[in-house]
Amino acid sequence: MPSTRRCLTPCVRPRFARLAMMIVLCLAPAAPGQDTARTAPPTDPAAQIDSDPLFRKSRVTFQDLQTALADPARRDNVIQRHFARATELTDDQRRDLLQSALKNPSWQVRQQAVDRLVQSGWLKPLVRKRVTEAGFQAELAFRDAALPEASRPLAPPEVVSPEYISALVQDLKSPSAQKQFAADRQLEALGPVVVPDLLQALSDPDLATPAAALLGRIVVAGEPAVVAEHMPAPDIPVPEAFVGTPMPKAVIESREAPELVREVDPFQPTTVRVHFGTNREVISSPVSAEQHLKNGVAAMLLALIVSWYIYRRYRGRHSDAAVQQAGCGMLVPAGLLVLAAAWGLVQLNTGWRQHYSEHQGATFGGHRAPGSQISFGYCDVSIPPTHQVGEVERPKLGAEDERDHVVLKRTQLQRDQEFFDAVRSRLTTGTNGQCFVFVHGFNVTFDDAARRTAQIHYDLRFEGVPIFFSWPSRGSFRHYFSDRNEILVSRQAIRQFLSDVANRTSAEKIHVIAHSMGADAVCQAIAELDGEGRIFEQVILAAPDIDAEVFEFQLLPKMKPRARRTTLYCSRNDLALYASNRFNDSRRAGDSSVQLVLSEGLDTVDASDMDTELLGHSYYGSCQPLIDDVRQILTANLPPPERQLEPRPMGHVVPAWTFRPWDPDARSADPQDSERP
Predict the structure, then answer these.
(1) pLDDT tens for residues 343-373?
(2) Closest by alpha carbon to 135, among 419, 394, 360, 393?
(3) Could you give the CA distance from residue 132 to residue 361 in angstroms, rounded to a whole number?
(4) Which of 336, 359, 338, 342 is nearest to 289 (CA)?
(5) What is the pLDDT of residues 461-487, one digit of tens each?
(6) How far apart are CA 172 and CA 179, in angstroms?
(7) How many helices, marked H, and strands, marked E, lie in the chain?
(8) How many whole angstroms separate alpha carbon 131 and alpha carbon 138?
(9) Maximum separation of any 2 CA atoms in the chain, in Å
(10) Are the beta carbons of 610 and 640 closer than 8 angstroms?
(11) Which of 208, 229, 426, 506 matches a 20 to 30 Å C-alpha distance to 674?
(12) Contact at 8 Å (CB) between 141 and 209?
């Protein structure tokens, strides 16, 4: 009898095989990602909308959005569908929600958050803050990269996966230079879609610098495109009631710091943006607050040791001879005690201020840059609501406070083209095409120059753009001769800066305000400018520390054709110019104690009777009558008789002018002063 196996004909064996395969498929579990009857989502759009509980709510709250973003089943489309519906959220709540969404595990949530941050104008400040927190090297890389490029690589058309982006970010610290370069180019080509990963990379010391450079090129170099083009299409349609719902105006408005000071809140500090050029050196590693505090503590310990030494050595001496002998021996330790205690207090106060300082960005020292190279940028300076006209409020002891002091908040470096583009952009918006360039004098640091420029701009209520040039003054009374040497070296840099402002900003009117030793270089620079005809609208020289004869007979004839009006403020009570007269053995143009500089085409104003501060050398920015006078010059180009000045009898064909007696309690003649806080 034939075996059973042989009895199975070829047509029967396939039937058994198909039956076995069906049994296996029925018993086998469903593979991940396969749709089954149990797990398949509803395909009806209405059913999908009903499955989202936020659609059933007429008012979406902050807590609703937070809860939905924490739910893995709903978070992927929460921002895209419901963020604009939450109209009752404050700007701070919207910003906090989007910033927290950047850390969400869902890649789609992170991309939607970047999209909204771009639309609201909050991405740039957020990136700048994160980069600053990442350290100085990261900030330098970001600053150098945040510049407009001639061309940028195009993003690839395909949408890459989050794993691919993460791998590219890790390749930025690859030992292979080729792999680093390739990853850098690809990440830049992808654009804003990689911002969340780059922000997370800032916490890695090996990735912070390249990530900051990429953020600078992607976020700041040009306005990034809306990230929605990189987002996958939503799988659930939005109800017609919410289609086209506009975002609230508060969300769309940019949160950049104000650049003008026309809108003044009497209860809040006002931020003034001033642009600068300087040939000072950039300090990459300034002395830290901790080091200042350590120096102060060491000095105070030394003072205590010296005090203990004096007490132990000279205690119990009561006779006149013993006291006299002890007094001679105490001169050296007593002097050391005073010096140590004074230096320790200065160091402690400096460290305290620096520890609580809000200043961010670049720091400039008291020496000139190699080759006297000019750096460009802008400063944001805060003016307190309690500000008094003519004052630059500073703390005598302790930390600075925006509510009471003029505070330098940020110093941002820029390349020359970016600098002039920014100035040109501001000149076209509400400035009447005007700007002024302020050049400070002797014993002024870069930070002091920035604060003084903002104060002058604020007090003058100047509608134009404030600019200043800071040459490398040491910022100390004992360095007069060093400052005199630096101003001679900086003359060419100042001339180049003034020429560039005139030629590259398209300003309709350029005013120049120069003080003290800075006026020396400004006069030399204006006299040496190339070309013919008028370049500047007003040139104002306040207490110029320049040889009077050199100014009157060599420089002034060349300066007059360059400006519509040239004004000289002088004083016979200026002790700083009196000392300069003795140092240089020559009469100074700003000193009226012996003789005034009088010339046709020059308005000489004697400010001797005004109430001045310190050495009587800073009246250019701290006297109400002079500020009112400068305002009338800049706004209306009024001659001295129309500015309520009185002629001073000199027996000269060209008169000198002086201020009328001024009552500090009287209201200013300018009606706009009543609007001042």
Answers:
(1) 767 766 666 566 556 667 888 989 999 888 9
(2) 360
(3) 8
(4) 359
(5) 998 999 999 999 998 888 889 999 999
(6) 8
(7) 27, 14
(8) 6
(9) 152
(10) no
(11) 426
(12) yes
Instruction: Name the amino acid, one letter, at 438.
Output: F
Q: What is the pLDDT of residues 248-269, one digit of tens each?
A: 333 333 333 333 333 455 568 8
Segment 10-29 shows an average pLDDT of 46
Supply the DSSP symbol for 547: B
pTM: 0.56
Number of residues in the chain: 677
Dihedral (C-alpha) 553, 554, 559, 565: value to the nearest 10 degrees?
Answer: -20
Element spanning 434, H or E: strand 434-439
Strands (DSSP E) along 38-164, which ranges? none
Give whole-number Cα distances, 485 to 410, 441, 473, in Å. 29, 13, 10
Distance of CA 617 to the CA centre of its chain: 29
The residues near 617 (Cβ < 8 Å, ≥ 6 apart) are 441, 516, 543, 574, 575, 576, 577
- The phi and psi torsions of 126 (rounded to 5 degrees) equal -65, -45
Helix locations, 438-511, DSSP H: 446-460, 480-489, 491-504
What's the burial of 157, exposed, middle or buried (CB within 10 Å: 0-12/13-18/19+)?
exposed
Token pair listed for 17: 């095989």
Torsion of CA 661, 662, 663, 667, to 10 degrees: 140
For 514, residues 6+ apart whose C-beta sits below 8 A from its C-beta are 438, 439, 441, 521, 522, 523, 539, 540, 541, 542, 544
Residue recorded with tokens 């940020």: 410
Residue 81, classed as helix, strand or coil, is helix
Sign of the torsion angle spanned by Cα atoms 291, 292, 294, 295: positive
Contacts of 476 (CB under 8 A, 6+ apart): 443
Rounded Cα gap, residues 202 and 130, in angstroms:
8
Place of tokens 């005034």: 596
